[in-house]
Amino acid sequence: MSNFTKKQKLIFNILLIVFSIVGLIGFIFYLTKFINLAIIFLSISGIGFILLMIIWFVFEKTNKKGK
């Protein structure tokens, strides 16, 4: 992550925090036996982390082309 710009690092950090909070909310719903809401929030969090990995690879590819 050393070759990313400050803006790209900020995007990653914000998205990591947001998806972690969504996952935590899903876990809290799971503990309080609201299984349907837990499934929804944990699914959103999981899909978000997968999208974040895709964004990571796209940023790496664009940064390598710029060099």
TrEMBL record:
<feature type="transmembrane region" description="Helical">
    <location>
        <begin position="12"/>
        <end position="31"/>
    </location>
</feature>
<feature type="transmembrane region" description="Helical">
    <location>
        <begin position="37"/>
        <end position="59"/>
    </location>
</feature>
<keyword id="KW-1133">Transmembrane helix</keyword>
<keyword id="KW-0812">Transmembrane</keyword>
<protein>
    <submittedName>
        <fullName>Membrane protein</fullName>
    </submittedName>
</protein>
<keyword id="KW-0472">Membrane</keyword>
